[in-house]
């Protein structure tokens, strides 16, 4: 596996990869890699085949964190991440510094102005501008044929798909199913910041989503009722403050009134559990 902290060597590597017949498949991350990332990388490896290449980036992107968010305490276990990438057959690991990525007087941003305004965007102002900007930069540097994102960040995937569509970026976006602990907790780099007490109750987030799914499957069609129940199931989790619990169209992220047969609805939630913000989502069909 080749590693690069500078853009120059990546550009050279990319030129060489042009001569090969397989695709360049890219998994962007902020590190603190876990089994969820490993499963994205394995998918990338399968898609790339022997002739293609798998690129992973590790970059804790400062521009997607708000001033009161957890940038400083975001976990950065680089040696472990490196070992995971080697084990999973990554060809190139790009791990730039903020100085390598952002010019001191950088003044251009990529802003998505529709899908990113609600849900996480409402409480994390500027978050998706930071995500879009860094992902656009990473796409420029790596020029992947395919990029894979985890579905735990459902809104992120929708926003990135929109950016790629609207800016005609020549990359295919794939999403990959959320990987969960045995008790249902969605894998997240932030899970390791949970206190033991919070970790114990964290699976109740997924249970609340499953309860909404079961109610829908049992015939409940009113989104308002489903949403009320979901919110109260989350609110009773100890040390939890509900940021949002919404049931939306899974592509447009627009609110729904009723579940109809064949409607592609998804419940998305965000909670502050102790000092850690967790998100999760689940398809809600009838
Ligand atoms: O999902 C993440 O880890 C980040 O938001 C991403 C896509 C790597 C951009 O910094």
Describe this entry's structure for a reader.
The chain has 286 residues and is α/β, with parallel strands linked by helices. The protein folds into two domains: 2-176, 3-Layer(aba) Sandwich (Rossmann fold); 189-279, 2-Layer Sandwich (Pantoate--beta-alanine Ligase, Chain: A,domain 2). A six-stranded parallel beta sheet has the order 1-4-3-2-5-6, with helices on both faces. Helix content is 37%, strand content 20%. Helix 6 crosses helix 7 (154-166) and helix 9 (204-217) runs antiparallel to helix 10 (223-235). The longest helix is centred in the middle third of the chain and has 16 residues, at 127-142. The chain starts with a strand and ends with a strand. The structure holds pantoate. Pantoate (PAF) is lined by residues 28-30, 61, 64, 131, 134-135, 153, 156.
Write the layout of secondary structure elements.
Elements: E1 2-4, H1 7-17, E2 24-29, H2 35-48, E3 53-58, H3 78-87, E4 92-94, H4 98-101, H5 120-123, H6 127-142, E5 146-150, H7 154-166, E6 172-176, H8 196-201, H9 204-217, H10 223-235, E7 240-249, E8 265-273, E9 276-284
Parallel strand pairs: 1-4, 2-3, 2-5, 3-4, 5-6
Antiparallel strand pairs: 7-8, 8-9
Helix pairs in contact: 6-7, 9-10
The structure holds pantoate.
Radius of gyration over C-alpha positions, nearest whole angstrom: 19 Å
Bin the helical content. Answer: 25-40%
Query: What's the main sheet like?
Result: 6 strands, parallel
Compute the number of structural domains: 2
Provide the list of bound ligands, each named once: pantoate
Stated plainly, the CATH topology of the largest domain is called Rossmann fold
Number of helices: 10
Described by the principal axes of the CA atoms, the overall outline is globular
Oligomer: single chain
C-alpha termini separation:
46 Å
CATH C-level class of the largest domain is: Alpha Beta
